[in-house]
Amino acid sequence: MKLFTKPWSFSVTLHILLVVMVVFPIVTISTMILQVYKRDLLQQTTERTLQTLHAVTYSAQQEIGKIEYAAAAVGVDRDVLSTVTSLIQADESNRFKYINDLTLALSRYTYSMSSQLLAIHFFYKDGGVYSFKQNLIKDEQELRSASWYQNLLQHKDSVQFLSLQETLLYGVREPLAVTAVIAPSDYHTLSNVEMIYFSLNEEAFDKILRQQPNDDSTYVIVSKEGQVVTASYNWEQSSLTPAKLEQIRSAREGHFIDQVSDRKMMVTYASVGETGWKAIQEIPYSKVTANYERIFKFVLFATIAVIIVFLLISFYLVHSLTRPIHVLVRKMSLVMEGELNAKIGTSKIAEMAALGRTFNHMLDQMKLLLRQREEQEQAKRKAEFAALQSQINPHFLINTLNAIKLMALISKADNIRNMTNALMRLVSSAFNRGGVLIRFSDEIANLKHYLYIMEIRYGNKFEVEWHIDPQAESKYLLKLLLQPILENSIVHGMAGKETRGKIVIQARIHEGSLHIVISDNGEGMTEEQLEEFRTRRSPHTFTGMGVANVHHRIQLHHGEDYGIILTANDPRGTRVAMKIPIIHRDQEEEQPLRLEA
Q1: Considering 9, 42, 165, 474, which has the largest number of Cβ atoms within 10 A of its Cβ?
Q2: Terminus-to-terminus CA distance in the chain, angstroms?
Q3: What are the recorded GO MF terms, alphabetically (predicted)?
């Protein structure tokens, strides 16, 4: 069962299909052709044999007709009947004269078969028998009591052909003789003959078989009782078995295959008129099928040659077709192991060549994607390093700011103390250990510390409006995303402005994303400057990251569907729109630095 459950290779499947769809039909067709040819050959041989047997039966029937005609002619000839009657009544002196007259009268009817006529027996009504040519040796009363004798007395002037009967003649070596009888009618008043019995040998029938071709065929004529009337010289008595006789009696003519001794024979038979005789011809089966054997060998050789040539060509084509597939499978295995240089060479088959080119192109694309991935990872690591490069010795910086705060507290310089406290909290948040994400509410708090420092630095030159959706405050985002943008609005937008500026910070959840907008009414930027600003990195601030770097960080972490868009604010200023995915919690718990006193 494993053979059927285990997947087969493409080449094995093609080979099986070739055998099933080509070799098997060729063998089947060749076998059918040979069987049809053999059947036609046997049929033609049978028809020719039956034609020969029909000629034999016709000749035998002609001979039987001659015997019946002679018997009928003798049975109605008044001269013959009266002479036979006078012969039995004459004395010895006149007897010879009547014998001569009878011989002369009978010669008119028996001249053509004189060589085969053995005897004619005349049975008298009142008893007694006269035998012409040879004497009767069998008991007269036994013959008179035979069924055929009594039956014939009821059918006067009717000739009955008795086929072969035991020889009734003295000195005859043949045990059987061809026999015909007739009972003359009673209107011959001068006749005392009751029955005429004719005995003949088989010479005429022997001549019929001697006229047949002298080949390996054997001929025999048998009576309905199975007695051999005549047979060819090469016929074997042992071949006539009871089973064969029974099969022959079953139909008027036909044929069958029989095993005779150690040879296989084709037996054909036909009836001889209504006598019940059968003419039989036996032909060696090997002779009948000799042409078939030659054709069989030729067809077998031709079939094998065609199959071999076809299989050679087919296997070559299958190999040519499957070899590129095997190469492709092997190359794909190498690719699975990490070998991306396993390219496929050219193929002579157009489809396989196209498949090879596609496979090679796929490898090139994979290497390109891997290279791009590596570059992105390197850029991401550089961005993270640029975002956190200020973490060098963070404890020292925070402790120093804490010392400045204590000095301002001692000196009762509240502005310095408050500014130092805001800067310390802002730096502490930037240097916070843990993940790269921060809660949005914490980011807002850091922005407020940053704004406090910038307000002291630049004076009261701007105001900030906050429009934050409460649902957005619990979401997470990358650290230090908003401070560079807010710094850009203050430094570049409000620095040269004479009137009080305004910065609006908005945040909301829309269509499954977190949207943050920072807009100002500062100096603004031209369309050319905006385009240039989108394509280059901005000057570094204390965080080491500009607006362009923020956009790049967002896309590195979340994909190209997210980022920032810079547009002109209406009626004046700059508008920065940021789109980031919704993140519900950081993957790692933030662990803030502990401030040392």
Answers
A1: 165
A2: 80
A3: protein histidine kinase activity
DSSP character string of 185-234 = -TT-TT--EEEEEEEE-SHHHHHHHHTS--SS-EEEEE-TTS-EEEE-TT
**DSSP secondary structure string for all residues of 337-391:** TT-TT------SSHHHHHHHHHHHHHHHHHHHHHHHHHHHHHHHHHHHHHHHGGG
Please report which confidence band the pLDDT of residue 391 belongs to, taking 50, 70 and 90 as the band edges: very low
Token digits for 343?
Answer: 């390219």
The residue type found at 193 is V
Q: What are the strands of the beta sheet with 277-284, ordered from one edge?
A: 228-231, 218-222, 277-284, 263-272, 253-260
Strand pairing category for 228-231 and 277-284: unpaired
Q: Cα separation of 423 and 544, whole Å?
A: 16
Rounded to whole angstroms, the Cα distance separating 238 from 62 reads 29
Helix (H, G, I), strand (E, B) or coil at 90: coil
- Going by their DSSP bridges, the two strands 462-468 and 501-510 should be labelled as parallel
Q: Any idea which residue has 């600003």 for tokens?
A: 533
395, 376 in Cβ contact below 8 A? no
**What's the whole-model pTM score?**
0.51
Q: State both tokens at 512.
A: 């499954």
Lowest mean pLDDT among 286-290, 326-330, 363-367: 326-330
DSSP 9: P
Query: If you average pLDDT over every residue of the chain, what do you get?
Result: 80
What's the CA gap between 149 and 160, in Å, rounded? Answer: 10
Lowest mean pLDDT among 296-300, 331-335, 541-545: 541-545
pLDDT band at 258 (very low <50, low <70, confident <90, very high): confident
What is the band of 596 on the pLDDT scale with cuts at 50, 70, 90? very low
- Please give the pLDDT value at position 579: 93
Q: Which two tokens stand for residue 479?
A: 């650290």
Residue with structure tokens 């080979």?
A: 15
For residue 200, what are the β-bridge partners? 117, 178
> How do residues 314-350 score in pLDDT, each as one tens digit?
777 777 777 777 777 777 777 777 777 777 777 666 7
Residue type, 285: Y
